[in-house]
Amino acid sequence: MNKDEYKKLVKKHTPREDKLHNTIYAFLIGGFVGFIVEGIIQMLMNMFDLTRVVASTWTCLIVIFSASLFTALGFFDNWMTKAKAGLLLPTTGFAHSVQSSALDYKKEGLITGLGSNFFKLAGSVILYGILSSFILVLLKVIIHG
Amino acid sequence: MTFIWAFIVAGIFCVIGQIILDNTKLTPGHITSIFTVLGAILAFFGLYDKLIELAGGGASTIISNFGYLLYDGAWEGYQASGFLGIFTGMFTKGGAAVVGAVVFAAFFTLFFDPKD
Q1: Does A8 reside within a domain?
Q2: In this complex, which of A59, A89, A99 lies closest to B14 when CB atoms are compared?
Q3: Nearest CA in chain A to B68
Q4: What is the per-residue burial (b if ≥16 Cβ within 10 Å, else e) of A23-45?
Q5: Residue from A48, A68, A59 nearest B61 by CA
Q6: Contact residues on chain B for A89, CB-CB shorter than 8 A
């Protein structure tokens, strides 16, 4: 068997993910999360007479709390794999990455394990979020004088 | 109506993320970082405000909202107290998500062990 034939054979047997299926899944699950979050926001606004900003912040915390709890209970990893981007892009993905790296490195000690790996996955979000915001605010200051 | 837009907007964000994930070699870490920066850029052009007005929770649950909150906090900090305000104001709005994630994750880590 020469190289080309081998390549063909490998390509044939590599499991191919159904991209259309993934995309529809991501849309439905992501949309559902957005729908639920809007529901919680409106519920809090009505129940406690809050402004939208305050209700949104509370809802954000509720979502993070639930995602962390579900990750700690062990079944959220499965959901994440199945939902793909549908649960990755909502705040659930952020909470899941913090919680799972915290759990995974727990046994390696409080400082060298938990402490230094806590933001292993979520750190880049915080880093690039801060950097880009800083640069963009400077840009806006320069433009507006 | 906000509910429908919440579904559509959150769904579209996730679809874009999924398409990038499927067709490039970028990892979930890349995707979340890209979308955070995208949120800050949309905030810079004043578009993210409008998106939240339209879709409510659909826009505020996406990770891009974190970039928007950082940018907005920093900008309001600048308006209130000048250059130093960029530094002190950055986390006034976006801090809740980070503190929440840290506190809850640390708390649950005390009581749970990783499952395989």
Answers
A1: no
A2: A89
A3: A133
A4: bebbbbbbbbbbbbbbebbbebb
A5: A59
A6: 10, 13-14, 17, 31-32, 35, 62-64
Give chain A's domain count. 1
- Structural domain including A34 reads 16-144
- Residue A111 located in a structural domain: yes
Domain for residue A5, yes or no?
Answer: no
Q: Block means of pLDDT (10 residues each) for chain A, length 145 residues?
A: 80 75 92 95 95 95 96 91 89 94 90 89 94 96 86
Residues in chain B: 116
Nearest Cα neighbor of B99 from A61, A93, A68 is A61
Test mutation, B1, B2, B30, B32, chain A, max A CBs within 10 A: B32
- Residues B6-54 have pLDDT tens digits of 999 999 999 999 999 999 999 999 999 999 999 999 999 999 999 999 9
A88–chain B Cβ distance below 8 A for any pair = yes
The answer to whether residue A11 sits within a structural domain is: no
